[in-house]
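Human:
Care to share another protein and its fold?

Assistant:
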Amino acid sequence: MKRSIVPAAVLLACTALVLADEDFDPEPIIQGRQAGLRDIGAAFKAVGDELKASSPSLASIRYNARQIEELAKQQPFWFPAGSGPESEIDTQAKPEIWKSGGEFKAAQDAMSEHARKLVQVAAGSDVGAIRAQWRELGGTCKSCHDRFREEED
């Protein structure tokens, strides 16, 4: 099953508008961000599901790893000023994202790096190495969620 990264492309276009106009509607930015993050989560789960299979599909793992990597590259555009708590739109994004930009950017960079490594490892056929890198990526995601994401109600 192919996933579309169209919401992320729409988000990039909206971000360009944000940068050009300070008085903007943050709702499409937030919706695009949430769609991109859901797509990352779905691709991550798909890799995990394959790794649980008795005979994992390397093609599926590779496809989903590339999806994660491509979406991870778009993260820097997902949290522009004005799309945080001041938007008054209920999200799970903590205000710390915008208050401690350096830490958040470092977390995004770490995620992108681990996603890149997953693609590299998945290019081979060592399922154990893929599983180890998938876990590394998962740990990076978890640490960011722990620091920058509100728990669901």
User: Anything to note?
Assistant: Residues 4 and 111 are 20 Å apart (CA to CA). The first helix runs from residue 6 to 20.
